[in-house]
Amino acid sequence: MEGGVRPDYKGYRILYRSTGLRDEPVVFSGAVLFPAEPRGRPRPVVAWAHPTSGVVTRCAPTLLPGLTSSIQGIDQFLDRGYVIVAADYEGLGAPGPHPYLVGKSEARAILDAIRAVRNFKYAEAGDRFVVWGHSQGGHAALFTATEVIRYAPELKLLGVAAAAPATTLIRLFQADRDTSSGRSLTAMTLHSWSRVFNFQISKFVPSRAQQSYERLASDCILTLADFFDLSDHERALQKDFLLSDPTMDPQIRSIMIENTPGYLPAGTPVFISQSLGDDLVLPAVTKDYARQLCDGGAKVKFHKLSTGAHMFTARDSAAAAATWIDGVFSGRSVPNDC
After folding, report:
1. Shortest CA distance to 159 belongs to which of 337, 338, 333?
2. Are 234 and 187 in contact (CB under 8 A)?
3. Which long-range contacts (CB under 8 A, 24 or more apart) does 166-169 make?
4. Burial level of 173, CB count in 10 A (0-12/13-18/19+)?
5. pLDDT at 206 over 90
6. Position 228 pLDDT exceeds 60
7. Residue 196: closest CA among 60, 86, 88, 103
8. Residues 101-116: pLDDT tens digits?
9. Can you list the pairs that 221-224 forms with residues at least 24 positions away whose Cβ atoms lie under 8 Å?
């Protein structure tokens, strides 16, 4: 696998079998990194859950030549000899529509990637893991914690680390509706959900905006250059490109409520990082969700960044997250801000 794998590590792109939203067999793609030198006993696993990269097949992070540079905290994880598993999510890198921000699908992608790597004997991956994600990946990480006991009970989740996670979807989409980034994410969401949940996009997007909408919805965000290209396409999309507010539509509201993370199992260690300068995932929404986790008995460490854009939250908090993850694996008492 290309992408800057360190000489003392091996890296592979993998295809593995998982289960779709309707319990049908599907193929997912992902990547695994592990030390080249055998250890002779199981290694702890860090599952990286990537932020929004797009909603079409070609937007898979593992198709990016510099994959390793997109895994935040990778240097710390490599130094500690962890196995790193990076799932692309359903429909990215393999055929099929991508269920964007659909928690059950994201969690299955992550859990089955770990299962697949555990069957690869040279990786020596154990059953103990922490999931660490950013933005959409933070959403995926939180849902992994709610799905693991039912879907993959043989795996032992020790903690969840999430940078600027997407949580209360209705609030976030309403707050971002009139911003350029919000228009981009709304276009991607409608593109994805119209295919996954079978509704006509013409219900929300008029014919005059269809071309710009399709172009924006099919963009990938894999590099900083992609981000600026996306901004150009956002500007081409009219501010009033929607016929109505999707968050007021009963079907869309139902999907958003179902895919808003809830309580985690009591006692779950959780690391949440949030920049106060984030204008996409609003700090107030993340803080409210952290309080909800505390009310449910989770052990929450809230790592506050005073400045920084949304796209850099995981990068800027990766060192703190890696230190927290080390503590979880070592069995040390985790900090609790509740």
Report:
1. 333
2. no
3. 166/101, 166/135, 166/136, 166/138, 166/139, 166/281, 167/139, 167/142, 167/260, 167/261, 167/285, 167/286, 167/288, 167/289, 168/260, 168/285, 168/288, 168/289, 169/101, 169/256, 169/257, 169/259, 169/260
4. buried
5. no
6. no
7. 103
8. 999 999 999 999 999 9
9. 221/51, 221/52, 221/53, 221/54, 221/59, 222/53, 222/54, 222/59, 222/61, 222/63, 222/64, 222/70, 223/64, 223/66
Q: Are 168 and 259 in contact (CB under 8 A)?
A: no
Residue 66: what pLDDT?
78
Quick one: which H or E segment has residue 158? strand 156-163
**Residue type at position 15:** L
Q: How far apart are CA 258 and CA 168, in angstroms?
A: 10
8 Å CB contact between 181 and 219: no
pLDDT greater than 80 at residue 248: yes
Reference 336, options 296, 294, 305; nearest CA is 294
What is the C-alpha R_g of the chain?
A: 19
Residue 108: both structure tokens together: 């299955």
| Predicted local confidence at residue 224, as pLDDT | 47
Residue 136 tokens read as 């959409």
121: which residues sit within 8 A by CB, 6+ positions away? none
H or E element at residue 161: strand 156-163
